[in-house]
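Purpose: get a first structural picture of the assembly so the mutagenesis plan has something to point at.
Setup: two entries, given in the order below. No constraints added.
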Amino acid sequence: MSLDVVLDRVTVRDEAGRAVLDGVNLSVLRGEAVALCGHNGGGKSTALRLIAGLLRPTSGRVKVGNRDLSRLGYQATREHRTQVGFVFEAGGLWANRTVRENIALPLSYHAGRVPDLEQRVTSLAEELDIVDELPRVSHRVNASVRKRALFARALALDPALLLCDEPQLGLVLGEARRVAKAIERRRRERGMTVVYADHDGALEPYTATRMVYFENGHVFDRPSALPPPDRPSFVGVLPQALGGAHVLGGGA
Amino acid sequence: MLGAVGRWVWTWQRDAVGIASLPYAAAKGAVLERGRGAGLVARATASQIYFTAVEPLPILGAIAVLCGLSVIAISDALMRPNGLAPHVPVVVAQAIVREILPIVIALVLIGRSGTAIATELGYMRVNDEIDALDAAGVNIDYFLVLPRIVGVTISTLSLTIALSFVALFGGFSLGEALNLVSVGLRFDAIIDAVSLSTIAFATAKGVAFGLVISTVNCFHGLAVGRSFTEIPRANVRGTVACYLACLTLNATLSVVALAERAA
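Result (structure tokens, whole complex):
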């Protein structure tokens, strides 16, 4: 199962009234892996939170699959969230629980008594090479294990859409490759849609079918909008093989 | 000046509405979730009861005995010489079970469990743990708030009732051992003076204080934004609000009960 994402003239203002996102249009097709690039404060993480349904836009519309997120009832909101995996930048793990409990949380909460819960958790941990860390309390493990545990938890419910904030943060290249492989396998086999937020656009070893650039709350489909010193390298970008995906214009 | 007062009133009423609606939101979450994650919620509730009622039992027991000793010794010493000896058991029972023990326990739990709740939830907010649970489709009011409200309320209630008897027995025994209690005062007379209405009154206070401590601190913990510096501020706000609310509630309930008795 897979989901497409549409941000339609979305504006988000912070408490001071500053536009974090300003009339942003963005579409992500099913099965795409899109990287949102740009400086800190450009609006990437805000866009991820909007898509996850954690944040409501000040104006505009966010649509994921056939759901308009601003009009969801309680059950529909929960269904949406069980279909979306969110990997936070660094935090997000339940600090006083073990890595195993963290990974199992979505399964044990939503699926109740899962007969093969242990097996599923172990299998995810093996895939991301954190089996030995499963019994440890999450605030006692290093940043790399925490990040991989976040990926494992996000993938636990087999999401149709995966949102990753700074996917390389805390991981060395070998660990990131393992994670990237796990994501890519699900994208190819099940058509999982993936949206990355990455500040410098050097996404390697993760692969993006398309890159979108966030700058001061606006979206661009070319890097030229970014100042030269921060212009991203494009290692890891696949050709736009899926085609058809495009930025709808942005607020620039 | 007027603007500052207006802002204060606005903030105060906004917080009051938020706090008052939290138990409802937690109960509604439990209904809407239809038993989802019930095992996890039950475990969190049990943990809350352990941390609130079991772990501090030695220190609370000692406080209860000292309170009991003070009230029994002072009542006996002041009333007996004035020919009021027959009334000492009633005064002791009412003062300890209805008035002193519930509020003393509440004040200790505000400093202990209340601050722990506000700090933990505040930390979870800053560390994105709450957003992560939310993103995973977990109902925060049901999963995080309900166990704390239920756990603290059960704990406060149980401690109020159990420690009342610890205070009476321990205070009396210690008073006897230290020769602070006259021979005429008997423990069974004090126990006989603990009426059903006195226990009901202490129960009502225990429940009310438990609800206040848990709800106020959950609200202030969840209200923390994205900065660690907001956690101590939430702590202070929660503690001060709890002290004010519990002391006001204690006085109000006592006055209402006395007025009813007089009527």
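The longest helix of chain B spans residues 88-126.
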